[in-house]
Amino acid sequence: AAKGYPPREPRELPPTPSAMLHAGSRRGPVRAALAMCVGSSALGSGALNERSVETAHSFTGRMCAASRLEETRRPDSLFSDPLAYTLAGKEGRAQPMGGWIMVPRTRFGDDFLRDHYTRGARQLVLLGAGFDARAFRMSGLPELRVYEVDQKTTFEVKEPLLTGESLAVASRAAVATEFTRPGEWAAALLASGFDPAVPTVWLAEGLLMYLSAADAADLMKQVGQLSARGSAVFHDAVSAEYLNARVSVAGAPFIGASDEYVNMWRSIGGFGSGYAHDFRAIKVDRARRRIDVDRRWPEATAARCAGQQVVLFVEVEME
Fold it and tell me: Per-residue confidence of the chain (319 residues) as pLDDT tens digits?
């Protein structure tokens, strides 16, 4: 069991039992939009529909898709993901991640992307993309170019499942790489067509807790170097005290945590303004089908996080 994760004080979305157990062209086939990083061998027959991923980290992505499926099926859902059933696969549907985190995190990321799109951001990079389907499910972003960055095994399973699906955005590229090899993912992203001169939204959902301190620092450095003015980052994370809880999700242990994420993005990545939300401030409003931030909760500063288990929503901007 994952001690201490989710938090001890769930709000509108109580943890599910499973969560407690594991703490191309715009209208054409997706095959044409496959990144050059995924080999043609990944594009097998329909028999691959139930192919399993090969790493625990990739498996968590299928768990997340299963939770998006659960939310999609609700009459008061905060988002809809028509591809979630397929992308979760049998293995993911059997072990959803848990709506307590997935619903507010997904909707927060959606809102964050739309807000910055209205301000001029035209690229989205999903770091640790997993089985995310924003490139297919989010309307109203016709000029957006999406880059999904994750392990090769994720795309070997994911891409065949997307064959024939229509994009809702301008383009999509899958970038297969590893975050544990310094600089590799950034070079692969550039090779896939990413333009560092264009304002970009970076979403790193469910990633930082799986990265070592050194790999997280390298990620922040690379993101900063690739970010034009007007770029912005959103990610969830956990405070340093979580490392003492020895959390492991489906065999993927939490090895990354900090009370200083905003300061790290400033000092390592060169970002300007930033804010770390205490997750308890993020409220799900089912009646109005949205999330709200309770401003009565103070910012999750290093002083407030010290010695406490705090789930964080972190956002920073390049000024």
Answer: 344 466 654 333 333 333 333 333 333 333 333 333 343 333 333 444 489 999 999 999 999 999 999 999 999 999 999 999 999 999 999 999 999 999 999 999 999 999 999 999 999 999 999 999 999 999 999 999 999 999 999 999 999 999 999 999 999 999 999 999 999 999 999 999 999 999 999 999 999 999 999 999 999 999 999 999 999 999 999 999 999 999 999 999 999 999 999 999 999 999 999 999 999 999 999 999 999 999 999 999 999 999 999 999 999 999 9
Burial 145-178 (b: 16+ CB within 10 A, else e): bbbbbbbbbbbbbbbbbbeebebbbbbbbbbbbe
Q: 41: which residues sit within 8 A by CB, 6+ positions away?
A: 156
Write the single-letter amino acid at 250: A
DSSP string covering 101-140, please? HHHHHHHHHHHHHHHHHHTT--EEEEET-TT--HHHH--S
Look up residue 317 and give its DSSP letter. Answer: E
Identify the burial level of 262 via C-beta atoms within 10 angstroms of its C-beta, where 0-12 means exposed, 13-18 middle and 19 or more buried. buried
Task: Output the pTM of the full model.
Answer: 0.87
Which of 186, 127, 152, 189 is CA-nearest to residue 55? Answer: 152
- Sequence-separated contacts (24+) of 43-50 with Cβ below 8 Å: 43/159, 43/160, 43/163, 44/160, 46/160, 48/157, 48/160, 48/161, 49/86, 49/89, 49/160, 49/161, 50/89, 50/90
Tokens 């507010």, located at residue: 104
Determine whether 90 is exposed, middle or buried from the number of CB atoms within 10 Å of its CB (0-12, 13-18, 19+): exposed
Contact by Cβ (8 Å): 232, 155: no
Tell me the three state secondary structure of residue 71: helix
CA distance 226 to 62: 28
Cα–Cα distances (Å) from 21 to 71, 98, 253, in that order, read 20, 10, 13
Q: Which of 29, 196, 15 is nearest to 104 (CA)?
A: 15
